[in-house]
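Batch manifest, entry 17 of 40.
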Amino acid sequence: MQERIIEIIVYLLEEFQQKQNNEKYTDLSKELLSRGYTESEINFAFSWIFNHLQKPSEEELEFSYSTDSIRVLHDLEKLVIAPEAYGYLLQLLHLGMIKEVDLEDVIERALSIGSTNITIDDVKSMAASVIFNPDTNPSVDGFFFHPGTNTIH
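Output type: structure tokens
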């Protein structure tokens, strides 16, 4: 379920960037409903966006790349992480869904799995864990999922 919410957030953020006007959120919700997402997933995605995409604190700026820098994978990372999976990670970073430290965390997790082929689906799962798991990411501010449900607490 977390991966589906990541997909919704990515879709919404891309829509927000492309459309500078104030398109009605209900129109975006209807579009997402027609794509098969549930109301609770859509509501959680909107809530996450409004609660988490604010100006970074001083603490968060301590570990950040220059705005015009790009993290380049070293040779071992290139062997393990598929180019499209890394591109997806960069997209999440560009959209502000993850921070630089989160990018490094996902790359580290990918290497620690021991697989020689980390796909986009693998990265989605790892990124969802970093974004939504309060144990690994304290910035989630009290949201967590009960496994197998759409309940947000």
